[in-house]
Amino acid sequence: MATKTEIRPLRDDESQIWDELVAISPQGSVFCYSWWIKATTGRFQVLGYFENGRLIAGIPLYFKRKFLLSILTMPKLTQTWGILIEPLSGKRVKVASKEMEIIRAF
């Protein structure tokens, strides 16, 4: 059976699945939870990587207006951000290969 992948922005009603991913991801931190991002930015977007309709990775995005430009940056008071991936199982080479596939997709 072929794996169906999709990359798309998460809807507002999907913040719970994002927070669940943050909780289990080795890359997750308090700075990635939706409540923290909302508190420090007011407005943000999460780009999600879905496999067979299930969120397995994502990256938070914050665009700041500066003059006439929209700049992708980290919000104030936020220490770290980046791609979050759920824990993957299998041999190290398979896990590394899958992680690289996800990172390349973003």
Describe the structure.
Strand 2 (45-51) and strand 3 form a beta hairpin. Strands 1-2-3-6 form a 4-stranded antiparallel beta sheet, sandwiched between helices. The protein has a two-stranded antiparallel ribbon with strand order 4-5. The longest helix has 14 residues, at 92-105. It has helices spanning 15-24, 34-41, 92-105; strands at residues 5-9, 45-51, 54-61, 63-66, 69-72, 84-85. With 106 residues, it is α+β, with helices and mostly antiparallel strands. The mean pLDDT is 91.
Structure summarized in a few sentences:
By secondary structure, this protein is α+β, with helices and mostly antiparallel strands. 30% of the residues lie in helices and 28% in strands.
Approximate shape: globular
Describe the largest sheet. Answer: 4 strands, antiparallel
Structural class: alpha+beta
Q: List low-confidence stretches.
A: none
* Mean residue pLDDT: 91
- Cα gyration radius (Å): 14 Å
Roughly what fraction of the amino acids lie in strands?
Answer: 25-35%
What is the β-strand count? 6
Helix and strand run: EHHEEEEEH
Q: What percent of residues adopt helix (DSSP H or I)?
A: 25-40%
Number of helices: 3
Going across the major beta sheet, what is the strand order? 1-2-3-6
What is the end-to-end distance?
24 Å
